[in-house]
Amino acid sequence: MKKLLILGGGTAGTMMANKFRKVMDREEWEITIVDKHRTHYYQPGFLFIPFGIYNRNDVIKPKGDFFPSGVNVIYSDIDRIEGEKNVVHLDGGKLLHYDFLIIATGAETRPDQTPGLNEGLWRKKIFDFYTIEGAVALHNFFKDWQGGKLVMAISEIPYKCPVAPIEFVCLADDYFTKKGIRDKVEISLVTPMSGAFTKPIATKMLSELLKEKNINVVPDFYIEKIDNEKQSIVSYDEMEVPFDVLTIVPVNMGSEMIERSGLAGDLNFIPTDKETLQSKKFENIFVIGDAADIPTSKAGSVAHFAGEILFENLLNAVEGRPLTAKFDGHANCYIETGFGKGALIDFNYDTEPLPGTFPLPGIGPFGLLKNTKVNHYGKIMFRWIYWHILLKGKEMPIEADMTFAGKRVPYKQ
Amino acid sequence: MEEKSIAGVNITLNEEGYLTDPEQWNEDVAKEIALEEEIELSDKHFEVLNYLREQFLAGESLSIRKVGNAGIVNIKELYQLFPGGPLKKSSRIAGIPKPASCV
Ligand SMILES: Cc1cc2nc3c(=O)[nH]c(=O)nc-3n(C[C@H](O)[C@H](O)[C@H](O)COP(=O)(O)OP(=O)(O)OC[C@H]3O[C@@H](n4cnc5c(N)ncnc54)[C@H](O)[C@@H]3O)c2cc1C
Predict the structure, then answer these.
(1) pTM value > 0.90
(2) Distance from CA of B95 to the nearest CA of A (A)
(3) What pLDDT does A92 receive?
(4) Is B79 within the bounds of a domain?
(5) Residue range(s) defining the domain that contains residue B67
(6) What is this model's ipTM?
């Protein structure tokens, strides 16, 4: 029996297990998936928890519900990969051999990487919404909060879902407006990037939106530490932003297991060929999802598009053919902007987000880089699509490669 | 795109003032671009610049954290060497493209 081993049973790993079990002969291929947790979290839903729009039960389901039959499932911590020997060591010493390995162990938040972050004020006045515990704690805090300085800060690039902090401040504006205390809440977005987003046309659109909502953007702010006494965040060039409540995206890093395996690049992300999705170190290892160091967004939609490419290339590799499928970095993100509206961006390695309509040129129904009610429904529908289509590795009515159809290139200024 | 003579070399710059061809770079070019940023280059500066060029030419992506971990300067010192946007400024002076934030 040949062995396909998948490490990580989150968004990307689950998707790959479903895709490969469908086509790989059960007599010939054994497929095994390993994850340390039994619960699958719908992470995009964490954004809505602080504002009471979703609660814990809206975002969790048993992982087991999404793995296909005919796949061995092991719940265990992974200790390390020994690529030279085609073997994976689990915690407790169990060994798993493989012919092909897919790494899908994602990214995790590491508050320990910023001095002062998980000290006195952590989960009292400092929160993250990138974990279920943080999102729920922030919800409890917001319920009785009377107003003050609300700071949303980003620690390091890259981080999962680059638009989530923008969505957070927009939803906060909506929430405190409806609570009748918006005039008592000062909202700021503090970012190490030069603006609200990295790509110029989208940044312009989003900056205007934030300005309209009276949300202050502090760009080029690279956090060195948190001063718990003064209640402020401090940058490497000694600027300070004071807060009454701080919501932070801690440094995002790949699993420590990757480092123990000698596969780590910057921040424990795995050096991966951005087109073929093959590990740069071992030919029989492929990487998908947030774990890879490819220069595109860390997002479920990216994992979905990349999944189609990895699927083809792994089958190519099995047959000894060249890896002909090429990933273009396609990302597609709904941006929740509050008051029942949303925006949508669609981009890849080479092309920044452009205005237009999606997925049908001239028709939509979704407006690219526009703030509309329909886009908001897109975001809400995404949860259904995630559980029922994305995780199951089914086809979506959107191509893996980005298309220019329906897009407009605005005049450069 | 703009053609410009810097330290006696004909250099092509993009809209944001970054060299479009890293091969047109030399240390005198670096010194002159640095002056535009009001920085006088020391040996420490050049160690950083050479590291950036090596990494870029090897196809590696760069981040402030990565430069800070390279064993030349820590992040705080990097900010002191290139005040403002350390990676953006140092890349311009090193003659390599503006680092893309990959999000
Ligand atoms: C607040 C928030 C909002 C988001 N919004 C969106 C959105 O609107 N749209 C979108 O497309 N994406 C969004 N994302 C991003 C999306 O959730 C992730 O990109 C996606 O889940 C990545 O999938 P993955 O499989 O790579 O990682 P994950 O789904 O995180 O899975 C990794 C798995 O590996 C396991 N694992 C890791 N290390 C080990 C180990 N050593 N041993 C055993 N198991 C291990 C973990 O338990 C986990 O189950 C959002 C994320 C967050 C946090």
Answers:
(1) yes
(2) 20
(3) 93
(4) yes
(5) 2-94
(6) 0.83
In a domain, B103, yes or no: no
CATH top-level class for A111-251? Answer: alpha beta
CATH code for the structural domain at A2-109+253-318 = 3.50.50.60
Q: What is the pLDDT of residues A69-112, one digit of tens each?
A: 999 999 999 999 999 999 999 999 999 999 999 999 999 999 99
* Integer Cα distance of B69 and B49 in angstroms: 15
Secondary structure string (H, E, C) spanning chain B:
CEEEEECCEEEEECCCCCECCHHHCCHHHHHHHHHHCCCCCCHHHHHHHHHHHHHHHCCCCCCHHHHHCCCCCCHHHHHHHCCCCHHHHHHHHCCCCCCCCCC
- A32 beta partners: A5, A72
B78 contacts in A (CB within 8 Å)? 236
Q: Which residue of B has its CA nearest to A198?
A: B101
Can you read off the two tokens belonging to residue A281?
Answer: 């170190």
Interval between CA A104 and ligand 1 midpoint (Å): 9
**pLDDT value at position A412?**
46
- Flag if B63 and A193 touch (Cβ within 8 Å): no
Question: What mean pLDDT is predicted for residues A115-138?
Answer: 96
Q: Do A157 and B75 touch (CB under 8 A)?
A: no
In angstroms, the CA A390 to CA A383 distance is 10
Give the pLDDT score at A364: 83
pLDDT tens per residue across span A299-337: 999 999 999 999 999 999 999 999 999 999 999 999 999
Number of domains present in the structure of chain B: 1
CA distance B8 to chain A (A): 31
The answer to whether residues A341 and A373 touch, using CB atoms and an 8 Å cutoff, is yes
Active site residues of B: 102
- The model's confidence at residue A413, banded by pLDDT at 50, 70 and 90, is very low
Please write the tens of the pLDDT for every residue from A41-60.
999 999 999 999 999 999 99
Q: Residue B101 and residue A296: Cβ atoms within 8 Å?
A: no
